[in-house]
Structures are given as structure tokens and as C-alpha cells.
Design a protein that fits this description.
This protein has five helices and four strands; from the N terminus they run E-E-H-H-H-E-E-H-H. By secondary structure, the protein is mainly alpha-helical. The strands form two sheets. It has a two-stranded antiparallel ribbon with strand order 1-2. Strand 1 and strand 2 form a beta hairpin. It starts with 9 loop residues before the first strand and ends with a helix.
Length: 174
């Protein structure tokens, strides 16, 4: 009993030592009829899935559109001379993106680089700054257009965050 207070699982005395999560059982009991009704027809399952996917895609698209609208109204790249890449992003990230582009082209090494003062291992820089899948956008942009790419990356990351937040809200508050 002392160990069980640290876990969300409880021993159900009716099932003689079987571990049961009381919250999951209560939700299963409450939703059992609605689950059976939803599973009764393939059409209703398909339409519910389509509605959810449409909602998540709409959250993503609305966020990206809002970021680009704000960028256009404020004169940020690609619509003006301002950039989301400021302070450290302008000094560090854009240079790291140029380095990543050279690595992906095969012109530089990921393991060792002479771009540091006396040369050194660059795996830590890669693993901390450059492992996001959004960073593969560097393949489609020239170095002079990295400010526009940075705006696209910010909009894309915020859009994906909005979509996953919508997934969380649908799961948490059905």
C-alpha cells in the first residue's frame, strides 16, 4: 500500500490483485454507450475522423495565415525589410542554417569543422540548434533569403503547435 500511493494505479479488491486505473474505468463506463454507437456504423467513424482532421488542419492554416498577415502588415520578410530573426537569431541561427546547408550539400563536415576558432567538434551545435525537421527548409532557400525562410519556420512551428494544442483540447475536453 505504501508503494501504491506514488502511482495512479490502485489494487481492485474484487479482482484480487489486478491493477486498475479508477479514472480510466470511470471514463470507459461513462463512454461505453457512445463508443458502441460510434462503432456501429463505419460512416459515422469516418465522418468523425474527417471532422477532427479538418479542425486540426484549420487550426494550423489559420495560425500560419495570421502570422503571415501580421508579417505583411508589419513589413517583415518576405514582405519588407524587417525580420523575425533578431538579436541571437540573426547573429547565430542564420549562420547555423548556412552551415547546415553546407553540411547537407556535402561541402562541410558535421563531426568536425574549422569554422570555430581553432577547429573542433560541431555535433553539440548540430544536436542543440539544428535537429528540427523544419530546418530542412534550408535546402529550398538561398542564403540571402534566410530571413524569409525564418518567417516561414516561425509560422510553421506555431501552426503545428496550434494543431497539436487542438488535438490536446479535443482529447482533454471531449
Amino acid at each position: 500500500a505504501y508503494i501504491l500511493q506514488y502511482f495512479p494505479l490502485l489494487v481492485n479488491p474484487k479482482r484480487k490483485g489486478k491493477f486498475v486505473c479508477p479514472r480510466r474505468n470511470a471514463l470507459t463506463f461513462l463512454r461505453k454507450s457512445s463508443i458502441m454507437e460510434a462503432m456501429s456504423s463505419e460512416k459515422s467513424r469516418f465522418s468523425a475522423r474527417t471532422i477532427n482532421l479538418s479542425l486540426y488542419a484549420a487550426c494550423l492554416a489559420a495560425t500560419v495565415a495570421l502570422i503571415y498577415l501580421l508579417a505583411a502588415l508589419s513589413g517583415f520578410a518576405p514582405f519588407g525589410g524587417n525580420s523575425f530573426a533578431c538579436v541571437d537569431a540573426d547573429i547565430q541561427y542564420l549562420d547555423f542554417f548556412a552551415y547546415l546547408k553546407r553540411v547537407l550539400r556535402g561541402e562541410a563536415s558535421l563531426a568536425y569543422t574549422f569554422e570555430k576558432v581553432l577547429g573542433g567538434n560541431n555535433v553539440a551545435v548540430f544536436s542543440y540548434y539544428l535537429t528540427s525537421p523544419f530546418n530542412l527548409l534550408v535546402l529550398f532557400f538561398e542564403q540571402k533569403d534566410f530571413h524569409s525562410m525564418f518567417t516561414l519556420m516561425v509560422a510553421g512551428k506555431l501552426g503545428v503547435a496550434a494543431a497539436f494544442f487542438a488535438i490536446y483540447l479535443r482529447a482533454r475536453f471531449p
